[in-house]
Protein 1
Amino acid sequence: MTTSQTTTSTSQATTAQGAPPAERLVLGAMMFGTAVDEATSFAVLDRFVDAGGRWIDTADCYAFWASESGYGGQSEELLGRWFAARPGVRDRILLATKFGAEPRDAANWPASRTGLSPAAIREQITGSLRRLGTDHVDLAWGHMEDRSVPIEETADACAALVSDGVASRIGLSNHPAWRVERARQHAVAQGVEPFSVLQHAYSYLQPRPGTLTGNHRFGWLSDELADLAAVEGLDVWAYTPLLSGAYDNPAKPIPEIFDHPGSTQRLAVLDEVAAEVGASRGQVVLAWLVARGIRPMLGGSKVHQLDGAVDGVALELPPQLLERLNGVDVTPPSA
């Protein structure tokens, strides 16, 4: 089941329930409008919709680090142009955007950023809707935690987006479990919409304890977060599931934070399973995530990367192969 063997049938493939496999995938639009030019972005977006994909994820800060101005908004603006150029497509997709991480002072990020106060949230979502050319989003995220604001105030402000019809659901990204649950319990007590979706980095390989996997202290999906999601019925989205292509691209080494004996063992089993099912490492990782009830996010910048990812989420791993993948000890030595 290699990409070259299956891309022609991607848009026709369906799951056992009749839904296209692409519905299991989130298309991340982070670099659209900056590192990924408009023509390529439109081609990837068109292919995603044609394949039956629904969820597209962006943020008001994307991609400030790659822009000439040092500020974000380019991704949302590009999506707005795509919606305008494709009448009716907005009704075919589910749109998510995030707020809280846009620089206030581009020279002093992350110390200076918009944050998650009620006023900032309302200001940011208003700007996002304007750039996107829509009157609502299907999911609004708090992008990164803001401890200068009581989490209860953030929860109230996000719940108001739902009650006002600006967002259908709300979620938190890169937050520790205790703050997620404090916010949820507050919302439940107030009788308003609680956070129901989590977005964190996650993949088959696991980082060494105590290592930072990105710009966020709580960016990696911990066992505690996963347990909270399972018990409370929260949806989980995983960003960077393919480690930016490192599973399959020899030019991109596995990041150093994953360099430990547990990863060596996991990669060996991953190679065995990939060979057995005729897929790439990355496709098996995506199938493994889906089997765990996690929705993977693809930040690909090329149509063939999207095709390969759709093939991956369509892959149904037999129980014995899932047991083999899950049976590898993932406890790495302390950093």
Protein 2
Amino acid sequence: MSLKIRLARGGSKKRPFYSIVVADARAPRDGRFIEKIGVYDPRLAKDSGERVKIDAAKAAEWIKKGAQPTERVARFLSQITLEGESAPVYAWTHGTNPKKGEPGKKAQERVKERADKAAALAEAAKQAAEAPAEEAPAEEVAAEAAPAEEAASE
């Protein structure tokens, strides 16, 4: 049986309150649990001591038995220590999902299409810039001849 230390939601609509529980991984989020080891109230200020309350001894005991904390609970456990010890109850490291910031396949395809379009437009602009440079002297000659014709007609 794999055990999880996780949050179980309580409270009413738009007023969340969580219990930190040890439960079988197959049990529903708010369903059956083995033991309640703490509480978390996200409505309180972040610096409030009442925001997260966890029995560190019970948490350490369950971790020794093989219970795995969820990401959020692991953060909480990394901030508390047992009495007489300097190390936290659980060593949590930031960023366990290396692909989280990468876009999906469709988004990568769209980025590639945009890059191809931009390259095509840049190539067309480059060709357009080269072509009028060759025709410019003929236009200048025509522009110089037009004022001379106007002067002659007067």
Protein 3
Amino acid sequence: MSLILFLLIGAIAGWIAGKLLRGGGFGLIGNLVVGIVGAVIGGHLFSYLGVSAGGGLIGSLVTAVIGALVLLFIVGLIKKV
């Protein structure tokens, strides 16, 4: 996957996760960071569970969004404490 495509998927995944959990995005850089870290978390989580989101762009986006949602959920729990 090219770097540009990786960054684009990360930004979109971060934006979607921000809309679903927080009700708004985090700006371009924030969405990018949340999406990229979420993609790493989602990839590890899916491989640990033995689940595959499918290949290609849609599978990568689904994995990144789920990972970003997990990341934002954990950050939300930590911020409340």
Protein 4
Amino acid sequence: MAEEKFVFDSLQDCGSIKEFLESLIEGFEKHSIDLSTNGNEIHLEPQGLLNFTVKARKKGTENKISIKVSWKDAPSIQASEDAFLKVR
């Protein structure tokens, strides 16, 4: 399967970042996140348990906070005759 990749990098004020994070929260609640900019877009469907990592660093005047959320798509399971247990 081909890799899909989305990158967005810009300078934003705290209010704009807050709005983005609130939209991201809504996406997690709906299990559907669509990201797009300048013709580049990606659709994600977070489900089940997600890996969640927060890192923060302060070095002199430089500050950084990183938030990472990752998961694997669950294979869709379809019932088949072989999936049922029969007891006789």
